[in-house]
Amino acid sequence: xxxxxxxxxxxxxxKSSYSNENGSCIEVAQTQSGDIAVRDTTDRSGPVLxxxxxxxxxxxxxxxxxxxxxx
Length: 71
Hints:
Layout: E1 11-15, E2 26-30, E3 36-40, E4 49-51, H1 53-64
Antiparallel strand pairs: 1-2, 2-3, 3-4
């Protein structure tokens, strides 16, 4: 497992445009290494998922194309 030393200062956390009003929200930021960090807005001190930019783009495209179910 890769250590998350570069997550000490992800820049520009922002709320995902796919978040909704019922509290199911995520925030995303770019890490110093260029990866995408994802966290739950209701648990900002909790775990952070880190993904490569290509994987993030693929997920966003799949959501946009309707291949991922949003609850």
